[in-house]
Inverse folding.
């Protein structure tokens, strides 16, 4: 079983739609959680950290459920520019990052 | 300011050859990480340096892979006797290290795309 599991998608949604991604992690000792965004043939970039209380950044909302070891990302009012792969990430020992396989999002006009 | 840079951007080599991949971290970042990303997968951790020392090399797949960071800045990932299965994008990331706190952002370089023929 992978340490971080995500549905690879793709999710194809129209502009303006709300879309949600989920991921689960296996190591209950993980302390830090992130969503990274990766555009095609580019490096991953931090989208947002995920806090226990949940956090919002504009159209993006991240939630963490430690009891279920579950992380989510909600994108409201999708834009064409949101098309990318979204990587669920947890920290491991020594702060190395453990990535899921990523979920592909394609927003169409 | 300048981000993480990696050279070369692309490297094509033949099976059995030796390659070196270079990473220049963000100035002042004490932590440096190497990851490897295969097609359709997320990046996988290889090795972590805090300063000059390798604090965690548990992700190196075998003894053909080695990395150094002699002066605590630039790092070189070295792969001996390359195999076709080594083909991937090799990503380097840097961060502030322990002083950066629990949500210590890692900044990634553009990667080196390695192709072993």
């Amino acid at each position: 079983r992978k340490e971080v599991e995500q549905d690879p998608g793709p999710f194809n949604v129209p502009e303006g739609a709300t879309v949600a991604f989920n991921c689960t992690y296996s190591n209950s000792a993980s302390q830090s959680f992130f969503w990274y965004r990766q555009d095609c043939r580019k490096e991953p970039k931090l989208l947002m950290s995920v806090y226990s209380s949940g956090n919002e950044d504009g159209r993006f909302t991240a939630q963490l459920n430690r009891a279920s070891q579950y992380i989510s990302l909600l994108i409201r009012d999708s834009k064409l520019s949101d098309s990318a792969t979204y990587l669920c990430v947890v920290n491991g020992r020594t702060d190395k990052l453990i990535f899921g396989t990523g979920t592909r999002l394609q927003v169409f006009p | 300011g300048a981000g993480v840079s990696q050279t070369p951007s692309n490297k094509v080599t033949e099976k059995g050859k030796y390659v070196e991949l270079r990473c220049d971290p963000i100035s002042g970042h004490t932590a440096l990480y190497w990851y490897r990303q295969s097609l359709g997968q997320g990046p996988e951790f290889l090795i972590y340096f805090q300063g000059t020392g390798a604090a965690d090399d548990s992700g190196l797949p075998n003894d053909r892979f080695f990395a150094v960071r002699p002066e605590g800045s630039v790092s070189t990932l070295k792969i001996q006797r390359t195999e076709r299965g080594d083909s991937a994008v090799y990503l380097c990331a840097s961060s502030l290290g322990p002083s950066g706190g629990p949500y210590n952002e890692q900044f990634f370089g553009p990667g080196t795309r390695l192709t072993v023929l």
About this structure: The CA atoms of residues 91 and 97 of chain A lie 5 Å apart. The interface with chain B takes residues 4, 8, 31-32, 34, 42-46, 49, 87, 89, 91-102 of chain A (CB under 8 Å).
